[in-house]
């Protein structure tokens, strides 16, 4: 960690699991909350704010850049349809682009632009330490992390490739520590102008134990042949 780090909880959108997140994150001294403007994500953000110590001070800031990837011809359809097509195409999660879908490169661009602006706000803020919650969606978050790892603007530590490139379960979260640029002089392994990102938890699901019945994606991978073939591409 560099100086007094900023901690970000980056959360996949959910519905019924919001109640668990409400209690799990209530011990955190959250200072900022950002969310996709999609209803499911916004409800997750609202549940987290209600459980926060700073309930009266927190305001949710929505940002369209945090939306899930538009999946073209599969928009609004069942998991089975999209996953069957994915498997037929070779099973490349990051390279799969259905007809009319948003390109993953464009998803990474909008997500990384949001992240860059957030980091700048934290650099310019008056607080020595902040806890930031960002509520987004599975494909969007995977591509954000992929973009950060490949960017020379960041030095990423404690990243696990075997866990990172998998679909994110509803209600799970990524916890990371963001170094401030002004503190780089204390970390000789970080280049000038480069921001250090340390992953503290990657796709944390401990709080979701026993709630598999509320996760549509997990149920799909357990109950259908297509899903079982795809099970290695999602979190356990």
UniProtKB/TrEMBL annotation:
Keywords: Hydrolase. It comes from the Eukaryota. The keyword Hydrolase applies. The keyword Ribonucleoprotein does not apply. GO terms for cellular component: cytosol. Pfam families: His_Phos_1 (PF00300). One of its GO terms (molecular function) is fructose-2,6-bisphosphate 2-phosphatase activity. One of its GO terms (biological process) is negative regulation of glycolytic process. This is Fructose-2,6-bisphosphatase TIGAR.
